[in-house]
Amino acid sequence: MDGKAPLDVIAASLRATRGRSGLSLTEVAKRAGVAKSTLSQLESGTGNPSVETLWALCVALEIQFADLLDPPRPKVQVIRANEGPAIYSERSDYSATLVAASPPHARRDLYRIVVAPGPGRESQPHMPGTVEHVVLSTGRALIGPLEDPVELHPGDYIAYPGDVAHLFKALEPNTTAVLVSETS
């Protein structure tokens, strides 16, 4: 735990967790079975909470009790351009660098794509329910379902079913993009 007083830490943890959950003060108080004024006081760093009140709030917010006293710290991860584990295509000048793997209980991966002009990368269908999202960063490219790809320019975005054959074909040198693959 950091050097802050426990009530300050609890207050900050409650405010942050409730904010992330999108729940109102009234809703959290109702779910926890505590008075709204009690929750308000705790979030402002005043009051004298009992263990039972704190446990009830943890249950209502779906967090561990320890998270109130020693909240998880955000992890910052930086991957510089041209760093990270790249995977290359055998058939085209195409590389995909995994930037962020899907965390447990989520189904999405984030890639940085680098493609040179040529035959393009034809991908076979992925798992059913897969959707790919692409934001073109530089260059021009044909992206989307194999039968009907769309020409994108820098800043353009496309989402398409990844569970059908699809294409990423650079039309200019130094074509780069960010691709998010998600499966429902």
UniProtKB/TrEMBL annotation:
Top-level taxonomic group: Bacteria
Pfam families: HTH_3
Domain HTH cro/C1-type: start-end pairs: 14-68
SUPFAM superfamilies listed in its UniProt record: lambda repressor-like DNA-binding domains, RmlC-like cupins
CDD domains named in the record: cupin_XRE_C (cd02209), HTH_XRE (cd00093)
Swiss-Prot/TrEMBL keywords: DNA-binding
PANTHER family (alphabetical): HTH-TYPE TRANSCRIPTIONAL REGULATOR, METHYLPHOSPHONATE SYNTHASE
Name this protein carries in UniProt: XRE family transcriptional regulator
Source organism of this protein record: Kribbella koreensis
